[in-house]
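Notes to self after the Tuesday call (sharing in case useful).
The group wants a holo model before anyone commits to mutagenesis around the pocket. I volunteered. Ligand is adenosine-5'-diphosphate. Logging inputs and output together so the record is complete.
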Amino acid sequence: ESLVSAAGEAEERAIESALRPKNLSDFVGQARVRQQLSLVLEASRIRERTADHVLLSGPPGLGKTTLAMIIAAEMNAPLRISSGPAIQHAGDLAAILSSLTEGEILFLDEIHRMSRPAEEMLYMAMEDFRVDIIVGKGAGATAIPLDLPPFTLVGATTRAGLLPGPLRDRFGFTGHLEFYSTQELELVLRRSAMLLDLKINSAGFAEIAGRSRGTPRIANRLLRRVRDWALVHGVEEIDARTAAAALDMYEVDARGLDRLDRSVLSALITKFGGGPVGLSTLAIAVGEETETVETVAEPYLVREGLLGRTPRGRVATAAAWAHLGIEMPESAVR
Ligand code: ADP
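Result:
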């Protein structure tokens, strides 16, 4: 069984990478970040220097990794990929940094989850292209300075606020990725459907886009589920009804809320009378880590006007009660 799911995951990853836009002009939406980034890259090409370090922030699945790959392609530079959780010791980072070649793009995903000593090593590397390799321990420890070739760091984080100030300050450019509009997601889906050779009418695209939680990764994932459904049911051209039927089966509701979103809202309403309740208490009630609730579920729920942040904690809005079909008592905070 694990073999089957491993093969399934490998296929998913292969499709995901096939659907990834390869250059800035194929990258849908995020007009502002795209323009700013394009200027940063163009300027560094003219100056014949490596580009400034770039920080990309935003919820998962909005295109941070894709943009890092595009930056490397546009700069015609090799790309190295690692992540904060993979770098637990300063030595792990030193090994990566010391093997970079000139102009290389280093992508660090979840950069806010790096260990403290690694973070401090990164400050110096970003600023002076230098690291101190510590040899030995205790009083006998010595620092051996090592020069690095100029490189461009592309850091990604689900929330820029999670980064310590000194690290944030060392990025020359910060791009905040926003949730995509339904129209933008339709463009993502049209492109993917073409690459996957799928027949879908306009209403079908709109239905899938509307349930994609403002997120291209989710749009592409839902598209594949709809594709499977259509295949099994012998549907030739996918319309809104087919898409809705398929996605209802996968527990994605008409507003795009998934199971985590709904369990956050339903805990807030059924266990805490709609709030206010502290984020960490809420996270415990749904059995998730605080960071997951804060960076994965909350931003979308807030954007959809279903969840409110108040100084005393999170509250469910009237729209949230309505969405879950529970009558809002007079006593609930509005
Ligand atoms: P993140 O690193 O922010 O979690 P990714 O860059 O891995 O997100 O994007 C997830 C998937 O969504 C990619 O495989 C890509 O196909 C798709 N995608 C993301 N952003 C866009 C975009 N702007 N246009 C088209 N497809 C996109």
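Two things stood out.
The pocket of adenosine-5'-diphosphate is lined by residues 16, 19-21, 27-30, 60-66, 156, 188, 216-217, 220 (CB under 6 Å).
The mean pLDDT is 92.
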